[in-house]
Design brief:
The chain is of the alpha+beta class and 648 residues long. Helices cover 31% and strands 27% of the residues. The chain is elongated, with a radius of gyration of 26 Å.
Amino acid sequence: MSYIKFEKGQIVNLEYSLGREIIRTNRAGSYASTTLVECNTRKYHGLLICPVDELGGGRYVLLSSLDVTVINNNQSFNVGIKKYKGDYFSPKGHKYIEDFETEVIPMRIYRVGGVLLKMERLLVHYEEQLLVRYTVLEAQEQMKLQIRPFLAFRSIHQLTHANLAANTKIELIRNGIKSRMYEGFPSLHLQFSKKAGFVHVPDWYRGVEYLEEQKRGYDYSEDLFTPGFFELEAKKGDVIVLSASTREENPAGFKGKFTKTVEGKIPRDSFINCLKNAAQQFVEKRGGGTLIIAGYPWFGAWGRDTFIALPGLASARHKLALYSEVLDTQVNRMKDGLFPNLGSGGSLAYNSVDAPMWFFWSLQQYLENGGSDCWERYGIAAKSILAAYKNGTAFNIHMENNGLVYADAPGKSLTWMDAVVHGVPVTQRRGYAVEINALWYNAICFSLEMARIEKDKKFVKEFENLPELIKKSFIELFWNDKLGYLADYVNDEEGKNYFVRPNMVIAVSLPFSMLDKEQMRKILEIADKELVTPRGLRTLSPGNKFYKGTYCGNQEERDKAYHQGTVWPWLYGPFCEGWLKVYGKQGENKVKKLIFGLEEVMGEHGISTLSEIHDGDPPHAPRGAISQAWSVGEVLRIIDLLETKYAN
């Protein structure tokens, strides 16, 4: 029996099944994503979504969906499903689903009349290619399959509509067709493992609606183009493979390629194996570099998320090579001591004060896990970052005379709490931010340790007096003995902000901390009381007047809640590490309860992965991106920590 199992009654219940999504990616940067019943509910859904370098490197939906019609005894059964205006679903193919499994790849079995049809699909590892395998399990006589492709040829962030500019012509190729709707796009090649007839009847299906976009306050209706449909004869025992690719393939190899690709996959037969599978999906190798995608389906390769997620993702298969490949790629993108936080290609944004500091933490994890070339490889980059922060760089990021890092740029949120509404940051946290200075201290202490080993006397002389100064200033500025915790941020205009947020927990968890054990214990105690939930840590205490317990509504409403109470699973990382640091073996049971409690969400949102966020209020419904790199990475890192450092 599959580890994650859905009953037929759940699958055919659209209220249940449309809220559960599947994401599969490959190393080429492509992905496929849809719901349990293959009814797309997002503009980000589709079966072949690829990066297109000619159009700036963003992802584009080429193949949106496939409708399959079984023709048996002169009756037609369309097993596809789409939503149209007025909660009208057509066709209603979900009612034919007999069985569904996620293991090892997504599989659906449809029963229509006397036919039992199994459909499986996967992405090829390093190619922009989707393979769909159709197996006729039962059929009393010869039957036909009609397969109609729906094309979008548009950015994942946009919608398309019927237009005269679209090229509706097709070209016949081996066992299929190729189509290119617009200039600048690659051609989409649709081919079968056996000869298939194609009926060219170009048409637009208008008013296809996406429920999740509607809920999120975005445009949610689009028109999809279909060039026609394929028709194939089939009988019991037949196995037919469809390839959708950006290049013409050899149909003779489809079946073997499908089998070989499946054989290399980790089975999703346990919580940890689900996480290991999810971890691999964030790794993208393109243009000679290796990137970590922050989350699916809409995030890119963000610097901050990369450094936080990397140690856990690398631990999934204990791959030191992944560290160096990702770190090398990021160092090559560094500018004025900063790493790109947003964007791609030539439009990168370097507005992250914490990404360079997390880089040092990532180096520490690399060294801890056997990366003996750590300083030899990254010492120059590390020292250039510290020099930039000490002397000042973009966004008014600089070290003050008290040794602490100060950052302030009008209209910008430079920390990870970076939501902006109408140009105004929701949680700007300007000035001295608690986790930034904790990370700064950690970075300098680590660098001095490395420099002394390497006998780098010049660096040691320049920075050796800073740790003591930073610690003295930090405790004086942030610690409140009466409250028993740290200020979240400090600036001249607002003074000291003592909102109970999880940022102070990061100061507890770091390898080099300025806090004593009693201070750590007090911080963890209040975090445990006010922020910890069964799904992660809240970003603001429910006792605060600005707390927002649900993350829903349009973008403005959601952004106002994003860091004002919303729960983030990745914050389990610093909290659990801090807890183990303070309580040692005695703290293990609590950490295990939190981390392994997330097993409950494996079938709730993004199937077999962890979501970006959850509501702050019970029952802590999953929200945001269905699969998030630092959620998966930090949970895997803590599991690895339990299995190594705290193993019996």
